[in-house]
């Protein structure tokens, strides 16, 4: 999530029942849509760099855990639930 906060910010990690909730907030959120969209599939049509390996691995890891990812964002925050 820190990649989405180019000017820094705060990250909060919590649980909601069986779900994990990650919330990042800053003065500006920068979403590279093709990169973040690659989180929604286990066969992304995106060439990840070495610095983005977590984006390439997360869909498979969540799938093995029987979880799915939901991402919401606006101009100042991004929320991921799985």
Automatic annotation (TrEMBL):
Domain of life: Bacteria
Pfam families: HPTransfase
Residue stretches making up the Histidine phosphotransferase ChpT C-terminal domain: 2-76
Protein name: Histidine phosphotransferase family protein
């Amino acid at each position: 999530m820190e990649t989405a906060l180019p000017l820094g910010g705060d990250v909060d990690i919590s649980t909601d029942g069986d779900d994990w909730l990650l919330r990042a907030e800053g003065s500006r959120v920068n979403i590279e849509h093709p990169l973040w969209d690659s989180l929604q599939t286990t066969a992304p049509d995106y060439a990840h760099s070495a610095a983005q390996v977590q984006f390439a691995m997360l869909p498979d890891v969540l799938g093995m855990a029987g979880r799915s990812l939901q991402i919401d964002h606006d101009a100042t925050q991004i929320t991921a639930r799985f």
